[in-house]
Design a protein that fits this description.
The protein has helices spanning 9-18, 28-46, 52-76, 82-85, 87-90, 96-100, 192-208, 247-250, 256-261, 263-272, 277-290, 299-305, and strands at residues 3-4, 119-132, 144-165, 168-190, 213-221, 235-238. It is of the alpha/beta class. It is globular, with a radius of gyration of 23 Å.
Length: 308
Protein backbone atom coordinates (compact mmCIF):
# COMPACT_ATOMS: atom_id res chain seq x y z
CA UNK A 1 0.00 0.00 0.00
CA UNK A 2 0.97 3.64 -0.20
CA UNK A 3 1.27 6.37 2.40
CA UNK A 4 -1.16 9.24 1.68
CA UNK A 5 -0.74 12.56 3.47
CA UNK A 6 -4.15 14.09 4.16
CA UNK A 7 -3.61 17.83 4.46
CA UNK A 8 -5.91 20.29 6.23
CA UNK A 9 -5.07 23.11 3.84
CA UNK A 10 -8.61 24.48 3.82
CA UNK A 11 -9.52 23.62 7.40
CA UNK A 12 -6.47 25.43 8.74
CA UNK A 13 -7.30 28.56 6.72
CA UNK A 14 -10.87 28.49 7.97
CA UNK A 15 -9.81 28.21 11.61
CA UNK A 16 -7.27 31.00 11.08
CA UNK A 17 -10.03 33.20 9.67
CA UNK A 18 -12.14 32.66 12.78
CA UNK A 19 -9.25 34.07 14.85
CA UNK A 20 -8.51 36.95 12.45
CA UNK A 21 -8.88 40.26 14.30
CA UNK A 22 -9.80 42.02 11.04
CA UNK A 23 -12.85 39.83 10.47
CA UNK A 24 -15.97 42.06 10.67
CA UNK A 25 -18.32 41.24 13.54
CA UNK A 26 -21.21 40.67 11.14
CA UNK A 27 -19.23 37.91 9.37
CA UNK A 28 -18.29 36.00 12.52
CA UNK A 29 -21.55 34.00 12.83
CA UNK A 30 -21.22 32.91 9.20
CA UNK A 31 -17.64 31.79 9.75
CA UNK A 32 -18.70 29.75 12.78
CA UNK A 33 -21.44 28.20 10.67
CA UNK A 34 -18.89 27.43 7.98
CA UNK A 35 -16.67 25.65 10.48
CA UNK A 36 -19.59 23.36 11.28
CA UNK A 37 -20.22 22.79 7.57
CA UNK A 38 -16.54 21.94 7.12
CA UNK A 39 -16.62 19.36 9.91
CA UNK A 40 -19.75 17.83 8.38
CA UNK A 41 -18.12 17.70 4.93
CA UNK A 42 -15.05 15.89 6.23
CA UNK A 43 -17.19 13.46 8.24
CA UNK A 44 -19.34 12.70 5.21
CA UNK A 45 -16.29 11.94 3.05
CA UNK A 46 -14.76 9.78 5.78
CA UNK A 47 -17.94 7.69 6.02
CA UNK A 48 -18.14 6.73 2.33
CA UNK A 49 -17.82 2.98 1.75
CA UNK A 50 -18.46 2.60 -1.98
CA UNK A 51 -15.84 1.96 -4.65
CA UNK A 52 -14.95 2.96 -8.19
CA UNK A 53 -17.13 5.38 -10.13
CA UNK A 54 -19.79 5.35 -7.42
CA UNK A 55 -17.30 6.52 -4.81
CA UNK A 56 -15.93 9.20 -7.14
CA UNK A 57 -19.41 10.53 -7.90
CA UNK A 58 -20.26 10.73 -4.20
CA UNK A 59 -17.01 12.56 -3.44
CA UNK A 60 -17.51 15.09 -6.26
CA UNK A 61 -21.13 15.70 -5.23
CA UNK A 62 -20.03 16.46 -1.67
CA UNK A 63 -17.21 18.66 -2.98
CA UNK A 64 -19.47 20.80 -5.15
CA UNK A 65 -22.04 21.23 -2.40
CA UNK A 66 -19.45 22.29 0.16
CA UNK A 67 -17.44 24.49 -2.20
CA UNK A 68 -20.50 26.54 -3.04
CA UNK A 69 -21.17 27.23 0.64
CA UNK A 70 -17.72 28.81 0.83
CA UNK A 71 -17.62 30.66 -2.48
CA UNK A 72 -21.23 31.84 -2.54
CA UNK A 73 -22.85 31.67 0.89
CA UNK A 74 -19.84 32.78 2.95
CA UNK A 75 -17.81 35.04 0.64
CA UNK A 76 -20.08 36.33 -2.12
CA UNK A 77 -23.17 36.91 0.03
CA UNK A 78 -21.32 38.65 2.86
CA UNK A 79 -22.73 42.06 3.72
CA UNK A 80 -19.16 43.29 4.20
CA UNK A 81 -16.34 43.53 1.66
CA UNK A 82 -13.55 41.99 3.73
CA UNK A 83 -13.99 38.35 2.70
CA UNK A 84 -14.45 39.05 -1.00
CA UNK A 85 -11.65 41.58 -1.37
CA UNK A 86 -9.19 39.57 0.73
CA UNK A 87 -10.03 36.10 -0.59
CA UNK A 88 -6.73 35.94 -2.49
CA UNK A 89 -4.81 36.38 0.78
CA UNK A 90 -7.20 34.36 2.94
CA UNK A 91 -7.07 31.40 0.51
CA UNK A 92 -10.41 30.00 1.64
CA UNK A 93 -11.82 28.87 -1.69
CA UNK A 94 -8.65 27.85 -3.53
CA UNK A 95 -7.47 25.50 -0.76
CA UNK A 96 -10.61 23.35 -0.89
CA UNK A 97 -9.31 21.37 -3.86
CA UNK A 98 -5.90 21.02 -2.19
CA UNK A 99 -7.58 19.34 0.78
CA UNK A 100 -9.89 17.27 -1.40
CA UNK A 101 -7.34 15.89 -3.86
CA UNK A 102 -5.73 13.32 -1.50
CA UNK A 103 -9.14 11.63 -1.28
CA UNK A 104 -8.71 10.51 -4.87
CA UNK A 105 -5.43 8.70 -4.21
CA UNK A 106 -7.29 5.68 -2.89
CA UNK A 107 -7.01 2.01 -3.86
CA UNK A 108 -10.81 1.95 -4.21
CA UNK A 109 -10.35 4.32 -7.16
CA UNK A 110 -6.87 3.27 -8.28
CA UNK A 111 -6.65 -0.52 -7.66
CA UNK A 112 -3.01 -0.51 -8.75
CA UNK A 113 -2.08 1.26 -5.53
CA UNK A 114 -2.80 -1.99 -3.67
CA UNK A 115 0.26 -3.63 -5.22
CA UNK A 116 2.61 -0.69 -4.65
CA UNK A 117 5.00 -0.40 -1.74
CA UNK A 118 7.11 2.51 -0.58
CA UNK A 119 5.18 5.21 -2.43
CA UNK A 120 4.22 8.46 -0.71
CA UNK A 121 1.38 10.75 -1.80
CA UNK A 122 1.14 14.38 -0.79
CA UNK A 123 2.67 17.83 -1.23
CA UNK A 124 6.34 17.14 -1.91
CA UNK A 125 9.49 18.82 -3.12
CA UNK A 126 10.46 16.49 -5.96
CA UNK A 127 13.92 15.86 -7.38
CA UNK A 128 14.46 18.05 -10.47
CA UNK A 129 18.19 17.89 -11.08
CA UNK A 130 21.72 17.48 -9.76
CA UNK A 131 24.61 19.87 -10.26
CA UNK A 132 28.27 19.88 -9.29
CA UNK A 133 29.68 23.23 -8.24
CA UNK A 134 33.28 24.46 -8.05
CA UNK A 135 35.98 21.76 -7.62
CA UNK A 136 37.37 23.98 -4.87
CA UNK A 137 34.33 23.17 -2.74
CA UNK A 138 34.11 20.00 -0.72
CA UNK A 139 31.22 17.72 -1.71
CA UNK A 140 29.89 18.05 1.82
CA UNK A 141 30.35 21.82 1.78
CA UNK A 142 28.34 22.91 -1.24
CA UNK A 143 30.13 21.03 -4.00
CA UNK A 144 26.95 19.16 -4.90
CA UNK A 145 23.49 20.66 -5.17
CA UNK A 146 20.14 18.88 -5.53
CA UNK A 147 17.44 20.94 -7.22
CA UNK A 148 13.89 20.34 -6.04
CA UNK A 149 10.47 21.47 -7.28
CA UNK A 150 7.49 21.88 -4.97
CA UNK A 151 4.32 20.10 -6.10
CA UNK A 152 0.75 20.62 -4.88
CA UNK A 153 0.34 16.86 -4.89
CA UNK A 154 2.51 14.07 -6.18
CA UNK A 155 3.14 10.34 -5.94
CA UNK A 156 6.78 9.87 -5.04
CA UNK A 157 9.31 7.40 -3.74
CA UNK A 158 12.05 8.41 -1.35
CA UNK A 159 15.63 7.66 -2.37
CA UNK A 160 19.00 8.26 -0.80
CA UNK A 161 21.97 9.64 -2.71
CA UNK A 162 25.56 9.19 -1.57
CA UNK A 163 28.47 10.68 -3.53
CA UNK A 164 32.16 10.54 -2.77
CA UNK A 165 35.46 10.66 -4.66
CA UNK A 166 38.28 8.10 -4.79
CA UNK A 167 40.78 10.87 -4.06
CA UNK A 168 39.03 11.85 -0.82
CA UNK A 169 36.72 9.08 0.44
CA UNK A 170 36.03 11.00 3.65
CA UNK A 171 34.39 13.86 1.71
CA UNK A 172 30.83 12.59 1.43
CA UNK A 173 27.64 14.15 0.12
CA UNK A 174 24.55 12.31 1.34
CA UNK A 175 20.91 13.38 1.11
CA UNK A 176 17.43 11.92 0.88
CA UNK A 177 15.22 13.05 -1.98
CA UNK A 178 11.89 12.19 -3.59
CA UNK A 179 11.38 11.24 -7.24
CA UNK A 180 7.94 12.12 -8.56
CA UNK A 181 6.15 9.55 -10.72
CA UNK A 182 2.86 11.44 -10.89
CA UNK A 183 2.66 15.18 -10.24
CA UNK A 184 -0.39 17.42 -10.09
CA UNK A 185 -0.59 21.19 -9.87
CA UNK A 186 -3.84 23.00 -9.04
CA UNK A 187 -4.77 26.47 -10.32
CA UNK A 188 -7.99 28.38 -9.78
CA UNK A 189 -7.70 30.57 -12.88
CA UNK A 190 -5.18 29.26 -15.40
CA UNK A 191 -3.49 32.01 -17.40
CA UNK A 192 -0.67 31.79 -19.95
CA UNK A 193 2.08 32.62 -17.45
CA UNK A 194 0.97 29.80 -15.14
CA UNK A 195 0.77 27.45 -18.12
CA UNK A 196 4.34 28.26 -19.18
CA UNK A 197 5.66 27.83 -15.63
CA UNK A 198 3.93 24.46 -15.36
CA UNK A 199 5.34 23.38 -18.73
CA UNK A 200 8.87 24.23 -17.55
CA UNK A 201 8.37 22.29 -14.32
CA UNK A 202 7.00 19.28 -16.20
CA UNK A 203 10.08 19.29 -18.42
CA UNK A 204 12.43 19.25 -15.43
CA UNK A 205 10.55 16.44 -13.69
CA UNK A 206 10.40 14.29 -16.82
CA UNK A 207 14.11 14.60 -17.41
CA UNK A 208 14.46 12.82 -14.07
CA UNK A 209 11.77 10.19 -14.67
CA UNK A 210 10.78 9.92 -18.33
CA UNK A 211 7.81 7.66 -17.59
CA UNK A 212 6.24 10.03 -15.08
CA UNK A 213 3.03 11.99 -15.64
CA UNK A 214 2.35 15.68 -15.06
CA UNK A 215 -1.27 16.83 -14.93
CA UNK A 216 -2.33 20.46 -14.54
CA UNK A 217 -5.75 20.94 -12.94
CA UNK A 218 -7.60 24.23 -13.08
CA UNK A 219 -11.10 25.40 -12.26
CA UNK A 220 -11.47 28.18 -14.82
CA UNK A 221 -9.57 28.84 -18.04
CA UNK A 222 -8.12 32.35 -18.35
CA UNK A 223 -6.15 31.91 -21.58
CA UNK A 224 -6.45 30.62 -25.13
CA UNK A 225 -5.86 26.85 -25.06
CA UNK A 226 -2.40 25.71 -26.18
CA UNK A 227 -1.72 22.19 -27.40
CA UNK A 228 -0.03 20.36 -24.51
CA UNK A 229 1.79 18.13 -27.02
CA UNK A 230 4.10 21.10 -27.51
CA UNK A 231 5.10 20.78 -23.85
CA UNK A 232 6.19 18.05 -21.42
CA UNK A 233 2.81 18.21 -19.68
CA UNK A 234 0.51 15.25 -20.23
CA UNK A 235 -2.74 17.17 -19.98
CA UNK A 236 -4.56 20.22 -18.68
CA UNK A 237 -7.95 19.41 -17.15
CA UNK A 238 -10.40 22.32 -16.88
CA UNK A 239 -12.64 21.09 -14.09
CA UNK A 240 -15.48 23.58 -14.56
CA UNK A 241 -15.30 23.40 -18.36
CA UNK A 242 -15.69 27.18 -18.61
CA UNK A 243 -13.76 30.40 -19.02
CA UNK A 244 -13.12 32.74 -16.12
CA UNK A 245 -15.75 35.45 -15.69
CA UNK A 246 -14.71 38.55 -17.65
CA UNK A 247 -13.01 41.34 -15.70
CA UNK A 248 -15.75 43.88 -16.45
CA UNK A 249 -18.29 41.53 -14.88
CA UNK A 250 -16.06 40.76 -11.90
CA UNK A 251 -15.68 44.49 -11.21
CA UNK A 252 -19.38 44.59 -10.38
CA UNK A 253 -18.71 42.23 -7.45
CA UNK A 254 -16.33 44.60 -5.64
CA UNK A 255 -19.06 46.01 -3.37
CA UNK A 256 -21.64 44.29 -1.21
CA UNK A 257 -24.41 46.11 -3.09
CA UNK A 258 -23.07 44.92 -6.44
CA UNK A 259 -22.81 41.34 -5.24
CA UNK A 260 -26.32 41.43 -3.81
CA UNK A 261 -27.66 42.63 -7.15
CA UNK A 262 -25.85 39.84 -9.00
CA UNK A 263 -26.26 37.10 -6.38
CA UNK A 264 -28.85 35.07 -8.29
CA UNK A 265 -26.84 35.33 -11.49
CA UNK A 266 -23.65 34.18 -9.77
CA UNK A 267 -25.43 31.33 -7.99
CA UNK A 268 -26.84 30.13 -11.29
CA UNK A 269 -23.42 30.47 -12.93
CA UNK A 270 -21.78 28.24 -10.32
CA UNK A 271 -24.59 25.69 -10.66
CA UNK A 272 -24.22 25.73 -14.45
CA UNK A 273 -20.47 25.11 -14.20
CA UNK A 274 -19.83 22.73 -11.30
CA UNK A 275 -16.56 20.89 -10.84
CA UNK A 276 -17.24 18.19 -13.39
CA UNK A 277 -17.34 14.51 -12.58
CA UNK A 278 -15.90 13.81 -16.04
CA UNK A 279 -12.89 16.00 -15.26
CA UNK A 280 -12.09 13.98 -12.14
CA UNK A 281 -12.70 10.74 -14.05
CA UNK A 282 -10.06 11.92 -16.49
CA UNK A 283 -7.58 12.42 -13.63
CA UNK A 284 -8.39 8.95 -12.28
CA UNK A 285 -7.83 7.50 -15.75
CA UNK A 286 -4.34 9.01 -15.84
CA UNK A 287 -3.60 7.61 -12.39
CA UNK A 288 -4.78 4.13 -13.36
CA UNK A 289 -2.65 4.28 -16.50
CA UNK A 290 0.39 5.27 -14.44
CA UNK A 291 -0.28 2.69 -11.71
CA UNK A 292 -2.08 -0.23 -13.44
CA UNK A 293 -3.76 -2.94 -11.39
CA UNK A 294 -1.94 -5.58 -13.45
CA UNK A 295 1.51 -5.61 -14.99
CA UNK A 296 1.21 -4.80 -18.70
CA UNK A 297 4.87 -4.67 -19.74
CA UNK A 298 5.97 -8.19 -18.86
CA UNK A 299 7.41 -10.27 -21.70
CA UNK A 300 4.42 -12.63 -21.93
CA UNK A 301 1.91 -9.78 -22.12
CA UNK A 302 3.97 -7.87 -24.70
CA UNK A 303 4.27 -10.96 -26.91
CA UNK A 304 0.55 -11.69 -26.60
CA UNK A 305 -0.48 -8.22 -27.78
CA UNK A 306 2.35 -8.01 -30.30
CA UNK A 307 3.73 -4.54 -29.59
CA UNK A 308 5.47 -2.48 -26.93
Amino acid sequence: MIDVVYVRAHGDKLHALAQNTKLPDSDKPMVEKQLQAYASWVKSMDSLTSEGDELLEELVTLLNAYKKTVEFDLIFCSGENFLYRQKGQLKLDNTILEEFLPRLFDARLIPGFARQNGLECGPKASFAGLSFESPLLALSGGGVYIKRKDQDFSVTRRHKMRITTPSNPNDIFEQDFHVSYFATEIKTNLDKTMFQEAAATAGELKRVSSGSKYILLCEWLDMTPINTKLTAMDEVIVLRRAKRIASNQRSEFSTAAGRQEKSQWYSDYLDKHPLSLEGFKRLIWHLNECFPAEEHDSEDIVLERGYF
